[in-house]
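Input record (one chain):
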Amino acid sequence: MLDLALPKGSLEEQTLLLFKQADLEIRKTDREYNPTVKDPRIRKVKILRPQEIPKYVEEGYFDLGISGKDWVMESDSDIVEVADMFYSKMGEGIVKIVIAVPNEKDIKSAKDIKPGSRVSTEYPNLTKKFFDKLGIPVDLRYSYGATEAKVPELVDVIVDLTETGSTLRKNGLKIVDIILESNTKLIANKKSMKDPVKRKEIEEIRILLQAVLEARGKVFIVMNVPEDKLDAVVSGLPAMKRPTVSKLYKSDYYAVETVVSKSEINILIPRLKALGAEDILEIDITKIVH
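The corresponding structure, as predicted from the sequence alone:
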């Protein structure tokens, strides 16, 4: 059985939703940091700050965890990256650690930052490595949150995580460089991955979680098509691979089914109708397993 660490904070809500949709519902109790899950593969669940999870997984306190690539690299944790999990608080899960300065500063890239500048960040290790590589000595100040609020009175530069950059812009800051692109990761302890039983359980959990993520933004459509319109409909139909086509019993109609992007369905359905498709059904998908 697996001990599992899940992230608290901005990723928490979406992580709990992901597990619920994967039929691995995490149920919170009065003990907020110690929820439960009814699954024979999971013994214990703990909700912790994502900054802490990679090291705890490396040290064997947990077999499996979810955290960001940024925190794996910041903590220099020696773990197994089981899978990319493209989700976040706001979108598809690609975030960036950026360097930002006040708009009025004549700085176009990190190379323009003056030696000795005060830099506030929650990522001191990654920030130091970045500026060391540029050969620019800076005065690093660890930030305990609300990093964007510290300029210009307390610091000159900030290094912060952003998904859209909107918070930085609202605070009169501009992005001048990117240290790292990050996304959510499913990570595992190396020893656990060498255990055949635990490795099998980890793989099964991975399949369920990624099946949910794969299904997001997609729908299943089914339609009936007369034989003389079949080629036209199929040629106008996007598909993950190829659509499934089967002849209806004692009929000159065919049933056509496939998976398409939800974002294009509002354009696709009228087009298919015009091409001759009938009885079109749109069905939500909960999981896709490749």
